[in-house]
Design a protein that fits this description.
Alpha-Beta Plaits, alpha+beta, 24% helix, 5-stranded antiparallel β-sheet, 4-stranded antiparallel β-sheet
């Protein structure tokens, strides 16, 4: 399931921090806590694999500029939260919390008007091959060094790919399958880059040697081959690590002809 809403500032152009994901997560947690304290404790009091991912997307990318660690926006923003169908209580709770705000929401210390709000089903995948595009950057945590991310081959900027990527990718998929499909067998999902770009994302405002924390990620299109149940799981809750912090939302765009 997916919840979407479109927000518009009450006055003209606006800006948000380049590290906007923590504030989006705070909004989700705050809204759920106000509506259902028990549900808030269930999902956010303990370190668990989150059954959701989210993304904040400008209505028009050509109306966005970056200056002095700020994102300058001249258009509305879309907030998308995608949740595993077995945990739809999260979406329903957030939906009800937003409705109670009577068409307004506060985020980034600003008041926004909600232009539209809806819940929709996520497109299902029936085959064992599918092409995806990223909605938010994908972060794959390294298997040997879990404090660092690994990236596949990215032809867009000539990055050859990290040697550890495919091993780390399989371990990451195995973790998601074990948590949500309750299968301890090692999954066999093949990753094939199509048109990817390596990007570095600043996140959580943490400092390391007096420098912002940087996460190597990738964006673009890629192909996955594997069981349809696993492909649908990735479509529902995202791909990679830190999905609950706004990374890894992907969208199925077509089935590969065999």
């Amino acid at each position: 399931m997916e919840l979407q809403f479109r927000i518009k500032p009450q006055e003209g152009d606006f800006q948000i921090p380049i590290d906007y994901r923590p504030e989006c997560l705070s909004f989700i947690k705050r809204s759920i806590q106000q509506e259902n304290e028990w549900l808030y404790k269930k999902y956010f009091f303990h370190k668990t694999i989150k059954p959701y991912t989210f993304a904040l997307i400008p209505a028009r990318i050509d109306r966005v500029d970056i200056l002095n660690w700020k994102i300058l926006c001249k258009q509305d923003l879309f907030f998308r939260l995608r949740v595993h169908p077995g945990y739809k209580e999260l979406i329903i709770t957030l939906y009800n919390a937003i409705l109670k705000n009577k068409g307004k929401v506060e985020i980034f210390n600003q008041q926004f008007e909600i232009k539209s709000l809806w819940i929709q089903q996520v497109r299902s995948i029936s085959g064992e091959q599918a092409i995806f595009k990223t909605i938010s950057p994908v972060f794959i945590r390294g298997y040997q060094n879990k404090n660092y991310g690994v990236v596949p081959e990215c032809v867009h900027n000539g990055f050859p790919g990290d040697d550890e990527f495919h091993e780390a990718f399989q371990k990451n998929i195995q973790e998601q399958v074990r948590a949500f499909l309750f299968d301890d067998d090692e999954p066999n999902v093949q990753f094939k880059p199509i048109k990817l770009k390596r990007v570095v994302v600043y996140h959580m405002n943490k400092k390391l040697n007096d420098k912002p924390m940087k996460l190597p990620c990738f964006t673009g299109t890629f192909e996955l081959t594997g069981q349809s149940e696993i492909l649908n799981l990735i479509q529902q809750i995202g791909l990679g690590s830190r999905r609950g912090q706004g990374f890894g939302m992907v969208e199925f765009i077509q089935k590969q002809n065999i």
